Structure prediction request, 231 residues.
Amino acid sequence: MVNQGDVISYLDMCREEGVNLQRGMNFRLKGGFSVILMSIRQGAPYADRIEAEGRILIYEGHDIPTIKNGPNPKSADQVAHNPGGSLTQNGLFFEAAEKSKNGESEPELVKVYEKIRAGIWVYNGLFKLIDSWQEISNARNVFKFKLELVDDVSFTTDVVSPDIDHNRIIPTAVKLEVWKRDKGKCVQCGSQNNLHFDHIIPYARDGSSLVSENIQILCARHNLTKRDRIE
Prediction:
């Protein structure tokens, strides 16, 4: 089971979810959770963003498929329904958000993975889908989804409580800076396997998620050994 801050390969991510993840939006996979893949790197295809010091994710819906002789997906409106009338992934997430807002269901639980480099992903944690809307962007209609990082999991017994030391997303710029500085290896032993972005001063002890000086890369063994000690 992955934990917030774990660095994971694409293949390991697919193994974790039990499916071949070929799209960014995945409504209610085999494990019962929805999964989204995000990126806020330069040149990313969608305008995802993080707010509230890493507690809120604004995720952009996805475009229509590329079809031979069809419209440019980046010029066409994002849609809620397929040609046959079934809901697209946009439609499924939008409907779930609306039901939650109307008190018809609990918020949809969504696991979020972020691409930081080719083949390298970070598990950003478990979120609840709390809002959805449509807006005009570059002269076309797009979906937006608002997700909040889960730190109160009392509404479900199937979710393991998140580590209190990691209950904010580490900004992408910080992850990239730390990855480059630590050369993608555990700072303790040089391992390149089972890596994790670790708070040097734990978040529970007022350590910041927002500066690279307080973030390091540890392997699973050294991360488990360190726990919440300040070294």
